[in-house]
Design goal:
Layout: H1 2-29, H2 37-64, H3 82-85, H4 91-111, H5 118-141, H6 152-155, H7 164-182, H8 203-217
Helix pairs in contact: 1-2, 1-4, 1-8, 2-4, 2-5, 4-5, 4-7, 5-7
Length: 218
């Protein structure tokens, strides 16, 4: 009974994180042009689908598998051997961690909404969910699934609180790299960084921003 309640609590918590995806979509829609609303929403769905496939097939093994030199994990490719490794959690833990991987990828895609083509965005999602996020996650959280020696970063005393660095820090740095590559909006900013004209805050966009804030905070 206690084990079933633990599983239920993890699933409910992961579902709340998944519900943040709706908040991310509303937040992005509130800051883009009306003509791009549908395409940005579809991009968010596609990136989450790609993240799910890549993280389950590759990322989870790198992040929580048996460690190799404290740098990367392995063994659980395609989610194989999970019930044997941890019968009490298994796929429930995968579902929980997948939601945070999806959050990291969605933050990156949202930072460049309506400014990138779909294919480069999906390629970035593959690299982030399959390599960048799992490797850094292994350095910090690599011993959460298996009772094994912590990876090198955790051995140095590094602690992460609620994904502040593993999820949001990683996504933030990748977003910054993407924004630098994309560059400033030429039609909105001049050479000095000042905005051209007045900011047009349309009513429906403000509503989306409010809904996004309530979804992500409450």
């Amino acid at each position: 009974m206690n084990m079933n309640m633990n599983h239920l609590w993890i699933i409910v918590s992961a579902s709340f994180v998944f519900f943040m995806q709706a908040g991310f979509v509303c937040y992005e829609v509130g800051f883009i042009q009306s003509k791009n609303v549908i395409s940005v929403a579809i991009e968010n769905i596609l990136t989450f689908v790609i993240t799910t496939l890549v993280y389950c097939f590759l990322g989870f093994a790198l992040m929580f598998g048996p460690t190799h030199l404290g740098i990367f994990g392995g063994n659980y490719w395609l989610l194989s051997h999970l019930p044997l490794a941890h019968p009490s959690l298994g796929y429930v833990f995968v579902f929980f961690e997948l939601m945070f991987s999806g959050t990291a990828v969605t933050i990156v895609s949202g930072s460049m909404s309506e400014r990138t083509r779909l294919l480069p965005l999906l390629i970035a999602a593959v690299f982030l969910a399959g390599f960048i996020y799992p490797l850094f996650g292994h350095w910090v959280w690599g011993d959460l699934f298996l009772n094994q020696q912590p990876a090198w970063l955790k051995q140095l005393g590094f602690l992460d609180f609620a994904g502040a660095t593993v999820v949001h820090g990683t996504a933030g740095w990748v977003s910054l790299a993407g924004i630098i590559m994309v560059g400033a909006r030429k039609d909105r900013w001049d050479a000095t960084g000042c905005r051209h004209g007045w900011v047009n805050l349309r009513f429906h966009r403000c509503l989306f921003r409010i809904v996004a804030g309530k979804t992500r905070l409450g």
